[in-house]
């Protein structure tokens, strides 16, 4: 048995107070994102967990990379035929979460996912290295394959097929925009009395701010 009850840490790096945060959670997310980026220590600041409700009724989480965020929401890219893509098509209610251990911060975002425009997906796909483009084409994401060698052989053939040729975005690959309905910011504090501020979207497009008990 692995008893982890003695794994303890005191959180003392920052605080989250209503007196010094904006009324809009996107602005606070932007501030935190760049503070974490400037602080260093996180290999991929834009790594986030995406949780969906699968077609089997079970929740499932996986780590993907955030590629853009604006006042509209948070954008990531994937294969629409993947397990997560099919789950979102069936139930667009998703949860995104970021954990930045170097600054003892967490952000949890509940929202609605929808496909980005084809123009947005095309633009991002064109910016990717050729290897990543071919990877998106060769991988039938989430499907069973016979071996690693099968994947690599298919990639070699694609490299020949698209040598000196523009690689088009496959129609089954593109972006999702997650429009936030609720955003919670968590800042670690001493004695487990952590700061938790939750923003909830209102019908007039404003945000209601609440402090939650840790």
From TrEMBL:
Q: Where does FMN bind?
A: 62-67, 77-78, 84, 106, 141-142, 186, 196
The record lists the catalysed reaction(s) as:
pyridoxamine 5'-phosphate + O2 + H2O = pyridoxal 5'-phosphate + H2O2 + NH4(+); pyridoxine 5'-phosphate + O2 = pyridoxal 5'-phosphate + H2O2
The note on the cofactor says: Binds 1 FMN per subunit.
Q: Name one GO molecular function term.
A: pyridoxamine phosphate oxidase activity
Q: What does this protein do?
A: Catalyzes the oxidation of either pyridoxine 5'-phosphate (PNP) or pyridoxamine 5'-phosphate (PMP) into pyridoxal 5'-phosphate (PLP).
What are the names of the required cofactors? FMN
The protein's matches in Pfam families, at most eight in alphabetical order, are given as:
PNP_phzG_C, PNPOx_N
Q: Which HAMAP family match?
A: PdxH
Q: Where does substrate bind?
A: 8-11, 67, 124, 128, 132, 192-194
Give the organism, scientific name: Flavobacterium bomense
| PANTHER family (UniProt xref) | PYRIDOXINE-5'-PHOSPHATE OXIDASE (PTHR10851:SF0), PYRIDOXINE-5-PHOSPHATE OXIDASE (PTHR10851)
- Tell me the enzyme class: oxidoreductase
- Residue ranges annotated as transmembrane are none
Record domain Pyridoxine 5'-phosphate oxidase dimerisation C-terminal: where: 173-214
Q: Which InterPro entries match?
A: Pyridox_Oxase (IPR000659), Pyridox_Oxase_CS (IPR019740), Pyridox_Oxase_N (IPR011576), Pyridoxamine_oxidase_dimer_C (IPR019576), Split_barrel_FMN-bd (IPR012349)
The EC code for this enzyme is 1.4.3.5
Question: Assembly state and interactors?
Answer: Homodimer.
Which protein are we looking at?
Answer: Pyridoxine/pyridoxamine 5'-phosphate oxidase
Alphabetically, which GO biological process terms does the record hold? pyridoxine biosynthetic process
């Amino acid at each position: 048995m692995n008893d982890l009850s003695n794994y303890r840490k005191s959180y003392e790096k920052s605080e989250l107070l209503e007196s010094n945060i904006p009324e809009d959670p996107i602005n606070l997310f932007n501030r935190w994102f760049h503070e974490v980026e400037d602080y260093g220590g996180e290999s991929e600041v834009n790594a986030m967990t995406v949780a969906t409700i699968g077609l089997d009724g079970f929740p499932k989480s996986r780590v993907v990379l955030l590629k853009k965020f604006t006042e509209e929401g948070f954008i990531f890219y994937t294969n629409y035929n993947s397990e997560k893509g099919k789950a979102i098509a069936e139930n667009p209610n998703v949860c995104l979460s970021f954990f930045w251990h170097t600054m003892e911060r967490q952000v949890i975002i509940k929202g609605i996912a929808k496909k980005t425009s084809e123009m947005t997906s095309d633009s991002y796909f064109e910016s990717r290295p050729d290897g990543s483009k071919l990877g998106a084409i060769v991988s039938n994401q989430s499907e069973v394959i016979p071996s690693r060698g099968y994947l690599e052989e298919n990639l070699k053939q694609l490299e020949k097929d698209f040598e000196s040729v523009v690689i088009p975005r496959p129609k089954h690959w593109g972006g999702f925009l997650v429009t936030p309905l609720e955003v919670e910011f968590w800042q670690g504090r001493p004695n487990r009395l952590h700061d938790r501020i939750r923003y909830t979207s209102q019908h007039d497009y404003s945000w209601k701010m609440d402090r939650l008990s840790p």
